[in-house]
Design brief:
It is a single chain. With 330 residues, the protein is α+β, with helices and mostly antiparallel strands. Helix content is 33%, strand content 17%. Strands 1-2-3-5-4 form a five-stranded antiparallel sheet, with helices on one face. The chain has a three-stranded antiparallel sheet with strand order 6-8-9. Strands 7-10 form a two-stranded antiparallel sheet. α6 runs antiparallel to α9 and α9 runs antiparallel to α10. The radius of gyration is 21 Å and the shape is globular. About 3% of the residues have low confidence.
Amino acid sequence: MITLDDSPIVPSRIPTGLARYRDRRPMARGGNGMLQSGFDQIIGRSVAIKMLLPEHRSLPSFRRRLLREARVTAQIEHPGTVAVYDVGDDEELGIYYTMARISGESFFDVLRGIAQRKQDTVAAYPLKRRLEVISEICQTLSFAHACGVVHRDVKPANIYVGNFGEVTLLDWGSAKVWGLPALDNSDTLLPTSRSGHFGAVIRSVRHRDGDFEISPLTPAQQLIGTPTYMSPEQIGNKNIDERSDIFSVGVCLYEAMAIAEPFRGINEEETFDNICSRAPTPPCERSPGLGIPQIADDIFARATAKQPSARYQSMRELIDAIHSLIDAVA
């Protein structure tokens, strides 16, 4: 039973900065920042606190990025995003922002559990439920696109499924916002050898045996996004719009159905080549024993077409297609 304390003990003196949050404990750590849990002793609620790693706290470019991430996340007010509560600049620990603390598991962990044949995960996430998760993420992205925001890093690791079935899209730090300046010069870095991929003859991806991969590929160049989910135009450093997110969702859709990755190569270079100039095995053929409806092949192929003009032109179109796919699941 959930109980609420109607007589909280409020400090006689309102603390400032991170002193407002007691019982801070590490939650996660990334390449640039870290996440802590804490208790807001003024409001009386648990929060998640994101801040920079010590080596980045004094660097203006990293401070700007974290502030930008907080503002973008805060302005996309939707059930499928995390609510931002506060932004601050602590004298000792630097810039931070606080947000709702969510509980559950990442969709990546769900797919990995299915690949590892964990019976409780398999039972909790049949094909229809996995498709529903993707559909809900599409709803969030549709709202974001209407607000002029392209996520640019949609992947199962950024999809969180809560303990009560809620689905949240995390990490808007790489988002492109129409009308706002780019993050910095790093998101226009282009490996020039990749520009020749466009218009190449489409060959087949050379799939390798093995379950859903555990280790992510990290781009050697500072491209915005995650290699195995990037659209061809992201890789080629072309102008992107919501159709780039549609491509990334298409990759997630494939993984949710086939429990396999459509474009992963042995390294970043082969992965980029697969995305830009090779066609993966259709999901029905890749995983014939998982009950994937035949129409899934066409939906995936259109969502991940090499040219943006050949894809679904809006997230709403993709949502309608996924709903028809859900209806076709036995």
